[in-house]
Design a protein that fits this description.
With 217 residues, the protein is mainly beta. Helix content is 0%, strand content 59%. The chain is built from no helices and 15 strands. The protein has a 4-stranded antiparallel beta sheet with strand order 1-8-3-6, with no helix packed on it. A 4-stranded antiparallel beta sheet has the order 2-7-4-5, with no helix packed on it. Strands 12-11-14-15 form a 4-stranded antiparallel beta sheet, with no helix packed on it.
Length: 217
C-alpha cells in the first residue's frame, strides 16, 4: 500500500496496510518466519505505526508453532502521523519463535485502517550512552510508590518515557514528545500498581535504553 505520509519519519514508498474487521473481537495479522528466531530475556521490539484514531492498544504475540511464548502490548498516541512504538520484552525466558502475530485493539469490536512498517528486534544501550543525555537518575529505587526521573538534554530531542510490567504491558506513559535542551524531571505515581518489578524504557531520538524499578511498600 502507498505510504500515507512519506514526508514523515517513515519515507518508504510502500508500507503494510490493515483494515480491521469490526465483526471480529480479535482480528489478527499473522507473519511466519522463514527460519526460527532466537529471543532472549532482554529483547525489545519496535514497530512504526500510522493510526487515524489513537490511542490504540497493539499486541505483539511472539509464537512457536501457534503457541504464544510472549504477548507484549504497546499503545499508539500520534494521530494521522507515523510513530515508533516500543514493545518491552523483559520477563520471558530464552526461546525460539517462528510466528509473529499483531493485534490492533484486541478485545473490542472496532473497525479502522492502520498502516505499519519496519518491525524490528531492537537492542538497548546503557542510559549513560544515550546520545545527548547527561546525569540521568531514577530515585528512589526501590520505590514506595512515587518514582522520580531526572535527566539533562544537551540538545532538543524527541523523548518517550514509558513503564511496563513483567508481561510487557505498557501501564504508563510519562513523556511523549519534543523536549528542549536543559534539565528535565518527571514522575511515575504507582498508586494503582502492585508491588513487584517493573521496567522503564527511555527513548531519545530513536535510541532506546531500559531499566528496572522495584515497588516495595
Amino acid at each position: 500500500m502507498v505510504n500515507p505520509d512519506p514526508n514523515g519519519m517513515n519515507t518508504s514508498d510502500y508500507v503494510g496496510s490493515y483494515i480491521r474487521n469490526g465483526g471480529e473481537e480479535n482480528d489478527v495479522i499473522v507473519g511466519r518466519l522463514a527460519s526460527p528466531l532466537a529471543i532472549g530475556t532482554a529483547n525489545n521490539y519496535s514497530l512504526q505505526v500510522w493510526d487515524e484514531n489513537p490511542p490504540t492498544n497493539v499486541v505483539l504475540s511472539l509464537q512457536k508453532d501457534g503457541v504464544p511464548v510472549q504477548d507484549i502490548t504497546a499503545t499508539t498516541s500520534a494521530t494521522n502521523s507515523w510513530e515508533t512504538i516500543i514493545f518491552a520484552g523483559g520477563g520471558t525466558t530464552a526461546e525460539e519463535i517462528n510466528e509473529v502475530v499483531i493485534l490492533f485493539d484486541p478485545g473490542n469490536f472496532s473497525s479502522g485502517q492502520y498502516f505499519f512498517d519496519n518491525l524490528e528486534l531492537t537492542g538497548t544501550i546503557a542510559v549513560e550512552e544515550l546520545p545527548g543525555v547527561a546525569a540521568f537518575q531514577v530515585f528512589p529505587n526501590p520505590s514506595a510508590g512515587l518514582t522520580n526521573f531526572e535527566f539533562e538534554l544537551e540538545r532538543s530531542a524527541e523523548v518517550q518515557l514509558s513503564i511496563y510490567d513483567l508481561n510487557g504491558r505498557q501501564i504508563g506513559q510519562i513523556l511523549n514528545g519534543s523536549l528542549s535542551a536543559g534539565q528535565h524531571q518527571a514522575s511515575w505515581d504507582a498508586a494503582q500498581a502492585a508491588d513487584g518489578l517493573y521496567y522503564y524504557t527511555l527513548t531519545v531520538d530513536g535510541a532506546l535504553s531500559t531499566g528496572k524499578i522495584a515497588l516495595q511498600r
